[in-house]
Amino acid sequence: MLDRLAAGLAATALRLPPARTRRVTVTRDIALRVRDGVILRTDHYAPDLPAAPTVLIRTPYGRAGPMRLLCRLAAEQGFHVVIQSCRGTGGSGGEFEPFVHERDDGLDTLDWLRRQPWWTGAFGMFGASYQGFVQWALAADAGPQLRAMVAVATASTTRDSTYAGESFALDTVLTWAELLQAQTVPWLARQWELKRGQPRLTAALAHLPLIEADRVATGVTVPFFQEWLRHHTPQADYWRSRVFDDRLHLVSSPVAMVSGWHDIFLPAQLRDYQALRATGARPRLVVGPWTHGSPGLFVAALREGLRWLDSHLCDDPAGDERAAGATPRPEPVDEAPVRVHVGGAGGGWRDLPDWPPPADATRWYLHPGAALRTSDPVPSAPDGFWYDPADPTPSLGGPLLVAQRAGPFDNRPVEARPDVVTWTSEPLAAGIEVVGPVRAQIHLRSELTHLDVFVRLCDVDRRGRSWNICDGLVRVDPQRFPADHDGAVVVPVEMWPTAHRFAPGHRLRLQVSGGAHPRYARNPGTGEPLGAAVTLRGGFREIMHDPDHPSAVVLPVVHSASQPSPS
């Protein structure tokens, strides 16, 4: 009764379509045995409706709490909802090894579904983050009975996100390892740790060597954390069987993708979108002003996901409703394939025919005097700074796993540090709308051959507050980035895509620094192995911006936006 009441209140608050039924039968802790004998604990939410299709959710985060509410809401919308704990989590047997068993376990679960008396021959999948990875693991082999996927803040491969710019996403990986381990401790102990501000995790993020950080954070050695530290090179065989992007062309199911501009997997998810488009598919893409795990993302994913599942799984919803005596549903709306939220003053939602939209690639060059201009660079001396990995440049906001610490922040505290250099435009005479991929090209000279280059684009408002819009980091080593005869290195930096309107009177600002810790593991400056490095070596570097070294950020200015005045 309480679940039913909570679902009714949530459906009203979330403005979901009228429920097809309020009568849902829940069977918990079904023992589903897979091919190697492991038992996967599974719950089934059965609506009191004839011929209802199935929605499958596979998760390592348990089946209680918000997931229970989500499953009931989906069941009331007219789906058999099957939610299963991945092996080694939530009471399921076996050991949790990220990405290893998800294809086979998913196929065995699908075989079980096909043998159920309520199976209609059509199913969809729904889920965020790791719940999306398991969808991609199964999708290419699920066959035509897979009629719809809803992939939220996720991607078909996590390798590139784990080693963004060939660095290491320390905060995301270690926080996730701690989160998974926390599910095994008593509830009260976990609440006490959260109330204390997670001091063990904080200490672990600052600890060296990294091979000990998992034990500092959790009290135990986390096997996958150790493996990810060891197998970090681009050619590592370890990841070949743990990524699914090479099979996207075999996925025939319609896919809805929902993400946020400050989500940790956004670049990889947009690559999935473009890979599907290359096959002729028409996925639905929604990107909003959200971070990974933020409430806004959850609400949007639920609305978009239920609508997508309804339109692709229910062949004749009107007929089902007449048979069940349910409230008639509104006719589906013909929506644009891409919907994005443009941040900044005067922004808002935009419907697009595709991603990315047509745009003018506008270069903003670094100039002397800390100026950022669209005019060509001029002869000038470089700007330099000292980076010390023993006092690493801190990360502030941006794409992080924990929603409360992610997203836009006023960057002035970081920009005041001597190891951060900035270039700022004049106040804009007219607004500029930037929508699409963003990249930078930084020319530098460094006394160290091992270093990181972090680049961040900010919107400086009329009060002088500097709000981060997008960023990116690249790890430099002499093999990947050999210096020229003058000792200069050219570093291309792929930054997070964005959709943002810089209002009149605002200024653009570009930051360049030597890292963003603990979001990215600090670069020790020595070339030591990722997990074993303990020696920290600081060094001076110069950012060059003369005509022979035209450092710049390239912004996709949409055609409808006002162009900046040359400066």
TrEMBL record:
Keywords for this protein: Hydrolase
Q: Give every Xaa-Pro dipeptidyl-peptidase C-terminal domain span.
A: 306-554
Recorded hits in Pfam families, A to Z, give: Peptidase_S15, PepX_C
What SMART domains does the record point to? PepX_C
Q: Which InterPro entries match?
A: AB_hydrolase_fold, CocE/Ser_esterase, Galactose-bd-like_sf, Xaa-Pro-like_dom, Xaa-Pro_dipept_C, Xaa-Pro_dipeptidyl-ppase/CocE
Tell me which PANTHER family the record gives.
Answer: COCE_NOND FAMILY, PUTATIVE (AFU_ORTHOLOGUE AFUA_7G00600)-RELATED (PTHR43056:SF10), PEPTIDASE S9 PROLYL OLIGOPEPTIDASE (PTHR43056)
Database matches in NCBIfam families: CocE_NonD
This chain's protein is named Peptidase S15
